[in-house]
Amino acid sequence: MDIIRPLHPLLQPYIDFFYFSPSIGGPASYVAFPHVNTCLSFFRNCQITINEDEIEIGTTVAGNNNICAFITGRYTYPVYVRYSAPIQEIAIVFKPLGLQHFIDHPTRQVHSGAGAAFEEKNWLSMAATLVDGNDANYVVDQLEAFLVQQFRQTDLTAMYTALLLLADTEEDHTINELAKASAMSRKTLERHFLKELGCTPASYRRILRFRRSVDLGLIKKEIGQLTAIAYDAQYYDQSYFIREYKKLTHSNPKAFFERIRTFEANKIVWMPK
Predict the structure, then answer these.
(1) Are 172 and 207 found together in one domain?
(2) Are residues 55 and 20 in the same domain?
(3) Same domain for 12 and 123
(4) Number of domains in the chain
(5) I want to staple 177 with a disulfide (CB 3.0 to 4.6 A). Which of 60, 86, 155, 173 is the partner?
(6) 60, 16: one domain
(7) Which domain holds residue 260?
(8) For the chain, which residues score pLDDT lower than 50?
(9) For 77-93, what is each residue's pLDDT tens digit?
């Protein structure tokens, strides 16, 4: 799997990375876990079936030469991804609120479940020229040129203020503190989160806390340090840490860290099935 960071300075604040999954030799599946990022994936000659916690990607009738795309949602449970046939994938992984700077009507793409089909015609036309590209660097150049053309100034200052406070590793800010710092009432802040991110501030914090603990666990690489990981990730105590992992991953922390696989400096964390 090739993972490439954006090179254009205009894109770097909004896009975490691109990834290119080579054609899989046969059926394969993995489990994906909640994330604050949003992944937009493009495929050729495939069909995507989406259920509440399961995504199946299979081929269409040969010769259709269609492009389809899928955008992830803000889910709070493990999602099972199944490839029923060899399929290549090109993906753009946006940082929180990143997509809002490239789409005319971004809130149409905000979902609270596993995700949904992405049907923006100009994006699909662009992807049609890229999916069969063999040179990852060439594909990224073309992707970046397209994204720079799509970029639009969008004032999300208040939301970015709230996200910055949620990312604070030194203090666990309350939702009321987030609202005050963002110059909004709590109800207005929650409405903006649902509109722009597909979840409440509390749910976003829950996912962010989980991803922080995953990053810490992969850095420490010692299952025996789970108590320290829980504390550093701002879980109240170890029992709460374990309960949250069972809800978000269907595994306890020890089993989770023993079974996951990571790619490219731990940017992607999946569990093979």
Answers:
(1) yes
(2) yes
(3) yes
(4) 2
(5) 173
(6) yes
(7) 157-268
(8) none
(9) 999 999 887 777 899 99
Q: What is the CATH number of the domain that holds 236?
A: 1.10.10.60
pLDDT at 58: 84
Residue type, 78: P
Could you read off the pLDDT of 20-63 as tens digits, one per residue? 876 555 678 899 999 999 999 998 888 889 888 999 988 765 55
